[in-house]
Design brief:
The complex is a heterotrimer of chains A (289), B (282) and C (274). Chain A is mostly helical. Chain A is built from 10 helices and no strands. In chain A, helix 9 runs antiparallel to helix 10. Chain A starts with 35 loop residues before the first helix and ends in a 7-residue tail after the last helix. Chain B is α/β, with parallel strands linked by helices. Chain B has 2 domains: 207 residues, Rossmann fold (3-Layer(aba) Sandwich); 65 residues, no CATH class. In chain B, helix 5 links the parallel strand 7 and strand 8. Chain C is mainly alpha-helical. Chain C has 2 domains: 49 residues; 202 residues, MetI-like fold. In chain C, 76% of the residues lie in helices and 0% in strands. Chain C contains 10 helices and no strands. Chain C is globular and about 75 Å long. At the A-C interface, helix 1, helix 4, helix 5, helix 6 and helix 8 of A face helix 1, helix 4, helix 5, helix 8 and helix 9 of C. Bound molecules: adenosine-5'-triphosphate and magnesium ion. The site of adenosine-5'-triphosphate has 14 residues of chain B, from strand 1, strand 2 and helix 1.
């Protein structure tokens, strides 16, 4: 055997020169799956670290407490705010004010969006007529309607409900349209050949495929509504969590600002969780989106 | 170093720089077991498996579906961890995967975002093979696999058989020391299959790589192999290893002619009987 | 939009000429948009049923756009406002892409990182971007940084989530194949996994861009003295309704253009995709 000296033109030998096997493990420890327990422990540890860092930052005054109050003070403020009034309402009052508007806009969106979506899904003609308008209006974010809504309806609940409605009606419509067209005609025919009557077809086939889509639409609509409401409350409101947040920021009450942000986030998560739960309850066969 | 075919015969190669004593098998599977933990509970895929492949040996594995053949190959490739036991290459623990042990997967595993040519060149790029050499080897494989016209196609534009040929080319182009092939001809039409079987026989005569070859075709197993290993039903273990005489008459003919040979038929029936026992029992 | 795609062509009706479905859909679209414009024009300019303070005529709006293009409104012309909006939006979404997409990939690729980051991320992502506006203003003052930060907050979550989803959905066998061919973990991620995850990641970027645009308009409505959001809020205080509508048109058109541009880009990037 000879040792090959590789020249620039020479062919590399068919069998490449021996290289000692890399002593890497089969799977790097970073890539291994974690048990549920390990995931939980790491999650708790990282969250605790974050809170600790936050505490240290404000305790050592590295960051001014005016900009970032210590976590304990935020918790304290939360307790006080539950009973004491701020800008004319307690925390509960402001939350109720926000939720009323969201519920109004969201329900109104469903009232208009559901039938509209079904109509669009059912008839080509209606789809051809309505969809282009829809497409034309969709790129304008709902909150860009706020100034116009104020001109039309004044600064008050109707203007906010209108804007929230605009943000909710889109997912309602699109998902109910999708729900209608998701019902595969072939499925209906299949159900017929299996000897199902009309009522039973509707129950088994139509509702089966359409429900998960509808519930998803409701969930997205509620998320949009909540998001948009907060923007509307920053602009035109005299109560509500967004209103509180903006005022707190202007008066440098950063603790109240963080409390209101926290509530806004928790409620958003709660809405999403509730509608997910509803989805699982009414359509347990559906895959989670 | 160069390896001329002259100093390559069946059996252990002496003077290998890694092993010193020269008696270590090229690839050794030693007491490998594997169980999967799933939501449904634990699945024992492999009971203790032992196999040793000498340098240049061609060993085929047959066994009932689901007995753990693919699992064994993943472990042998260093892609999955054995629950116990070890994989040795040249007598040393093999560790993670690498291009010396090249794999052809049962489910192709082509990279969907890369063209045929890019798929084939992927391993060479990792090994930093010089560009001109890459191009040369690519051409060779494209011709061999009849894929010349499809070098710029994406995997989803190819038929199943073509995808399989790309997967084989991607492996062969690395000229590995050990080839691990999991039903590599499974998705091929009969003609291409014949062609590639003969091509594989020819290639290994030239390159003398060591091959672990899984198949569900008993004929193929007998035709290609130096030894055929039959696995038990799940949890899989090596049931029997059967020697195929290297000097058999049918060795030099193609598989169709070989199948008419009484000696071949006898062997095939022997293997088939062993496999059938396992299928029936499960 | 995929949902407008027509179904299988039907047999042409016996009465009318044999128009294909696409043409009929287009005709309907022209008719519906045309008639809405016509009604708008009739109600405002021709019959004067609504006073221009409530609903300006389309002509007024067109005139307002033309005027805005040359005459400064609250400090700069339309182009100045567009430029400052686009700049803030661009900064925010650029940061979101650069941080969000790799974060998503990392979350999917490395389980310990996922375990550490997911609880915090889940906690924060339910706070709507607009709720960050007051905090951003408090921290950064009412200016470019605060607005870009709000854009970032809005664009970041969908980019992370979709990149993570994309990487998580890649067949683990591809990872194995790459490693068997000698690729390192980083190479596998960059050259095999990420290309496959790109459609999903791009979908996230697309959602992020549009979320960011929306958030920017919100931020400009609340604070600042430049940008399209500022234009419409200023027009509202001045009682210039035609400027409000003109601003809304510009916001919509720009949003649509960004989306179209990204669609074109992703179509090019995804040639391999079935
Ligand atoms: N990742 C996994 N998780 C859980 N169980 C697995 C996994 N991979 C394989 N198994 C189980 O291990 C057993 C062996 O699977 P394997 O794929 O090795 O079979 P096989 O012999 O290759 O079958 P076939 O001939 O059909 O390809 C099967 O029962 C399978 O269900
Ligand atoms: Mg298998």
């Amino acid at each position: 055997m000879t040792t090959e000296t590789s020249t620039s033109t020479g062919r590399v030998p068919l069998q490449r020169p021996y290289r000692p096997p890399r002593k890497r493990g089969t799977t790097s420890i970073w890539r291994r799956g974690l048990s549920g327990r390990a995931t939980f422990v790491i999650g708790v540890a990282s969250s605790a670290t974050l809170v600790a860092v936050w505490h240290l930052l404000s305790a050592t005054a590295l960051v001014s407490p005016l900009l970032l109050p210590p976590p304990l003070r935020v918790a304290e403020t939360f307790w006080q705010f539950l009973t004491a009034e701020y800008l004319g309402e307690t925390l509960v009052g402001h939350t109720a004010a926000s939720m009323t508007i969201v519920a109004g806009g969201w329900l109104l969106g469903g009232l208009v969006g559901l039938p509209l979506g079904i109509l669009i899904g059912w008839s080509d003609r209606v789809r051809w007529l309505v969809f282009p308008l829809f497409q034309l209006l969709r790129p304008v974010p709902p909150l860009a309607w706020i100034p116009l809504a104020i001109v039309w309806l004044g600064i008050g609940d109707p203007a906010r409900i209108f804007v929230v409605f605009l943000s909710a009606v889109v997912p309602w419509t699109i998902n109910s349209m999708a729900a209608v067209s998701s019902v595969d005609p072939l499925l209906i025919r299949a159900a017929r050949t299996l000897g199902a009557g009309d009522g039973s077809i509707l129950r088994r086939v139509v509702i089966h495929t359409a429900t998960p889509t509808l519930v998803a639409g409701a969930r997205i609509a509620l998320g949009n509504a909540w998001t948009t409401l907060i923007a509307a409350e920053l602009l035109a409101a005299s109560a509500g969590l967004g209103f509180v947040a903006l005022n707190a920021s202007q008066t440098l009450s950063s603790d109240i600002l963080l409390v209101s942000m926290g509530i806004i986030g928790v409620l958003g998560a709660l809405f999403s969780a509730i509608l997910r739960g509803v989805g699982r309850a009414v359509a347990p066969w559906a895959k989670e989106a | 170093m160069t390896h001329s075919t002259a100093n390559r015969t069946r059996g252990p190669v002496t003077g290998s720089p890694t092993t010193g004593n020269g008696h270590d098998p090229k690839l050794e599977i030693r007491g490998v077991t594997k169980n999967f933990v799933t939501r449904a509970g634990e699945v024992d895929a492999l009971a203790s498996c032992d196999l040793a492949l000498e340098q240049g040996e061609f060993l085929t594995i047959v066994g009932p579906s689901g007995c753990g053949k693919s699992t064994l190959m993943m472990v042998a490739a260093g892609l999955d961890e054995a629950s116990s036991g070890s994989i040795l290459v040249d007598g040393e623990p093999a560790g993670g995967p690498g291009p010396q042990r090249s794999v052809v997967f049962q489910r192709f595993a082509l990279f969907p975002s890369r063209t045929v040519a890019d798929n084939i060149c992927f391993g060479m790029q990792q090994a930093r093979v010089p560009k001109p050499e890459q191009a040369e080897r690519l051409e060779e494989q494209l011709t061999l696999m009849g894929l010349g016209k499809f070098r710029d196609s994406y995997p989803h534009e190819l038929s199943g058989g073509m995808q399989q040929r790309v997967a084989i080319a991607r492996s062969l182009v690395l000229r590995p020391e050990i080839l691990l092939m999991d039903e590599p001809f499974g998705a091929l039409d009969a003609q291409t299959r014949l062609l590639l079987q003969e091509e594989l026989v020819r290639l290994r005569q030239v390159h003398r790589f060591t091959v672990l070859f899984i198949t569900h075709s008993v004929e193929e197993a007998v035709y290609l192999a130096d030894r055929v290993a039959v696995m038990t039903r799940r949890p899989g273990a090596i049931k029997t290893v059967i020697d195929v005489p290297g000097d058999a008459e049918w060795r030099s003919s193609d598989i169709e002619t070989a199948m008419g040979h009484p000696e071949f038929t006898q062997l095939r029936q022997r293997v088939w009987k062993l496999v059938k026992e396992e299928i029936v029992a499960s | 939009m995929a949902t407008t795609d027509v179904k299988a062509p039907r047999r042409a009706s016996e009465a009318g000429p044999a128009l294909d479905v696409r043409t009929r859909a287009r005709n309907h679209a022209i008719a519906s948009i045309g008639s809405v414009l016509l009604v708008w024009l009739l109600v405002t300019s021709v019959f004067g049923l609504l006073d221009p303070e409530t609903l300006p005529s389309p002509l007024d709006v067109a005139r307002a756009i033309a005027t805005l293009a040359v005459d400064p409104f609250s400090g700069s012309t339309l182009f100045g406002h567009v430029a400052s909006s686009v700049q803030r939006w661009g900064l925010g979404v650029l940061a979101a892409v650069l941080i969000g997409v790799p974060t998503g990939a990392l979350l999917a690729w490395i389980p310990p990182v996922r375990a550490a980051v997911t609880p915090v991320f889940e906690l924060l992502r339910y706070i709507p971007p607009f709720a960050w506006i007051p905090l951003a203003v408090l921290w950064f003052g009412a200016g470019l940084t605060a607005q870009s930060a709000v854009v970032f907050v809005a664009a970041f979550p969908p980019m992370v989530i979709n990149a993570q989803l994309g990487v998580a959905q890649v067949d683990p066998l591809l990872d194995k194949a790459a490693r068997a061919l000698g690729a390192s973990s980083a190479t596998t991620l960059a050259r095999v996994v990420f290309p496959v995850a790109t459609p999903s990641a791009l979908a996230g970027v697309r959602i992020g861009l549009s979320n960011g645009w929306m958030a920017l308009i919100g931020a400009e409505l609340v604070v600042g003295s430049e940008g399209l959001g500022f234009v419409i809020s200023q027009a509202q205080s001045n009682g210039e309704t035609e400027v409000i509508v003109a601003g809304m048109v510009c916001i919509g058109v720009l949003g649509m253009l960004f989306d179209l541009a990204l669609q074109k880009l992703s179509a090019r990037a995804l040639r391999w995709h079935a």
